[in-house]
Write a structure and sequence with these properties.
about 600 residues; alpha+beta; D-amino Acid Aminotransferase, Chain A, domain 1; OB fold (Dihydrolipoamide Acetyltransferase, E2P); seven-stranded antiparallel beta sheet; five-stranded mixed beta sheet; about 40% helix; globular
Amino acid sequence: MDDIKALAEKLATYNEAYRSGKPLVSDHEYDTLVEQLRELDPVHPFLHSVEPEKFESKTEVRHPVPMLSIEKAYTQDDLERFVNRVLKEVGGRDILFRVTPKLDGLAGRDDGRVFATRGNGEVGYEISRAFTKGVIPIGGRGRGIGEIVIVQSYFDEHMSEEFEHPRNMVVGIISSDNLNEFAKKALEDEKVHFVPYAVLPGWEGSAEELMKHIKDITADLKRQTDYPIDGMVASVTSEKIREQMGATSHHYRWQVAVKTKGDTAATSVNGIVWQVGRTGNVTPVLEIEPVSLSGATIKRVTAHHAGMVKEKQIGPGAEIEVIRSGEVIPKIEKIITGSAEVVVPETCPSCGEALKWENDFLKCNGSHCPAKVVQAISHWFKTLGNADWFGIKSIEKLVEKGHDSLEVIYSMSEEDFVGVGFGPVQSKNLFEAINISLTKLVEDWRFLAAFGISDLGKGDSRKLLAEVRLEDLPGIKEEEINQIHGFGSITSRAIVKGIAEIKETMHHMLSLGFNLEKTPLSSEGERVDSPIAGKGIVFTGKMKRGSREAMQAEARRLGAKVQTSVSGKTDFLVCGEKTGKSKIEKAEKKGAKIISEEEYYEMMS
């Protein structure tokens, strides 16, 4: 009984941490512990109620219909058991299943008047003020149950170095009245959304098709969804069968979450290497006893931030479990036993400057930190993407010898590279790479993003240059950027400040004569010749002639506003094979023109 009590208390602690946006364990570890409790005590109260969440100072609201959790299926056998249970329940009749992405955010219900969190499933918390803060209701108010999430690509570009997981930021926005600068920025940029489940892309098919093609279905829906995802949800489509199957006190019987675990292995930590990033964040990389995962030998694992090292007692001798799914970067699954030796640096390992804590991160603010310079130059060549040879080791060697700016590197001769200590063949390759990067065609938005200006990644660079010429940027004012849709005052201020800091470098690099492909201005007359100029367009399904990504890039070049989901601003829905019925229905409701891939190419020609 003591074991059962301790396990239930541990689950309650883990659930509270997850609901507050600071998970202590992975979803899979949590679900494994839940199953352990089920084996020990099948009737334990924790298993028969929705895991609760708390929002202090929020008004409690009773849901008209319970908002329940979802049963999990981690393996093909789990999914098959669910499907067979459904077929048995309905007498083996042919039924349809619908699969949609399982968003990893904060669940809520919006009836157009009340917006409430899930709470304990029966009673939630009123959070309608989220909309006045700037959360965008996708598809408008009153669309029912969904999740509050941040756009994934935006998070990756602007926030991933500051937050361990997008959910952390979302929970902070809802629970706190005093928002930090990152939350304010995301809200101003209209990147925090309430996404009703009804508007998500989906797949429909038979039980046989579901079990046979779930991997392909998952991959396709992931490509269509620019939000954090932690699996797929498979549901029976028939309302009559849903009513017939009903629910437990914890989950609906007609629905299951399809999730993947990935390969795991236990190992030990030998040491920690502290790395300095381009923005000054000092992050820990664990050197571990080598283990084999998904066909690769893993020797290093990122611990994300210094706060994790302190909180979870990570250091030499710590026993950990690491996980890797397919080609995904390996990460810590859980800490088995902590270390007695936990050391967090007080000074920058590169320049010796005193480090400062910002949230859970350690930061170096040294203006001439060699590691920051190396990462900035590396970011330039990686983002520009049109020349090889400038790997991190080569850049470190250049910076160490005093060649620590783009201006200097682009003025170097073949002999200069030899003088730094490179061999004759490598010196020739580096010199040729510089010339290739100057002459090979590259988009101007990619050129701009390569400077690494704060809050100006690839997507925002493309958006900005659709309104302002690259050569006019050094003199741009904050209010001019703020008037462009998608840029808030905080972002505009940061961009103007960032441009001012690299203005001289930008002038110099432009004077070198890069072969830049200009982004068409939204006001240019030449775009009128394109039938999709200024039009909102969504590409969906599997295309025959090429990838969706290539079609999107070409559409942007021709002046279209490429979107990831259908909305009231969508003019065209271009459908490939296996297009979801719900997306077509939504396009019809929104008044978008629905055309096939072939019809699209006919229109363009």
